[in-house]
Design a protein that fits this description.
Order of helices and strands: EEEEHEEEHHEEHEEHHHEHH
Helix content: 40-55%
Radius of gyration: 16 Å
Oligomer: single chain
Number of helices: 9
CATH class: Alpha Beta
Largest sheet: 7 strands, mixed
Distance between the termini: 39 Å
Number of domains: 1
């Protein structure tokens, strides 16, 4: 199965690999988050969750980047409503990945900065390149403050030993450093990232009981998901 949707700011395509849905995103540049792109990603998770024959999802970027973060033209454009819509959509996407009823595996094909790094934190298993890419939360270095939902998922997934350096000090890491900090679970040869992510996803799809996984996610992550939901709603309300 193959499906491609032009979302206006990039192309989101999906293809089946057995019981795994591979979702690729490529805007021809650095995959900056836009509202249409996030909506297209959300729709692919809808598809996976609604199909009993899909047991896991892989999200992959392009050859340059996994995702670069929010579209800075919007963030620095001064339109409060547009900024709020984009930031809340990003938070909803990270929360969606973390709370999905199917495992979500990240194929971090290149740089993952700001919101791109946050999406890594929302995925069950993260495969990245053992290369000199840039992965991390650079918001403080560019005069931005992380929203509450981003703080919540950062505290949940990043290594406590690296939390201050990663968040407050805006340190960007290479692939191996990202494994140590908690952005990634493993780093492999750059040309093997997608294949390895598919391998991990196939194993999860084969070995995990779907109902038990969904119930365990609700129980294990419920408090974090509820906190993220509340933060996203506050962002939406503030921008209205």
């Amino acid at each position: 199965m193959s499906d491609t949707a032009d979302n206006g700011n990039g192309t989101v395509s999906a293809e089946r690999h057995g019981d795994v849905l591979l979702v690729r995103v490529d805007d021809g540049k650095a995959n900056a988050f836009s509202v249409p792109m996030l909506a297209a990603l959300d729709a692919q998770i809808d598809t996976a969750e609604a199909d009993d024959e899909i047991g896991a999802v892989v999200i992959a970027g392009n050859d340059r980047a996994f995702f670069a973060g929010f579209d800075l033209n919007v963030i620095r454009g001064g339109d409060r409503a547009a900024i709020g819509e984009l930031v809340s959509a990003g938070g909803a996407m990270v929360r969606r990945a973390y709370g999905s009823s199917v495992p979500v595996v990240a194929a971090c094909t290149g740089h993952a900065v700001a919101a791109g790094a946050l999406l890594l934190l929302g995925c069950d298993h993260r495969v990245g390149p053992d290369a000199q890419v840039k992965i991390g939360l650079n918001e403080v270095a560019i005069a931005l403050t992380l929203p509450d939902w981003a703080m919540t998922i950062s505290k949940e997934r990043l290594s406590r030993r690296h939390l201050q350096r990663c968040v407050a000090n805006a340190r960007l890491l290479d692939g191996n450093g990202a494994v140590e900090a908690g952005y990634l679970d493993e780093a492999v040869s750059p040309d093997a990232v997608v294949d390895r992510a598919l391998e991990v996803a196939a194993e999860l799809a084969e070995t995990l009981d779907a109902g038990a996984y969904a119930g365990t996610v609700r129980a294990l992550r419920g408090d974090v998901l509820a906190a993220m939901d509340a933060s996203v709603e506050r962002d939406r309300a503030a921008a209205a």
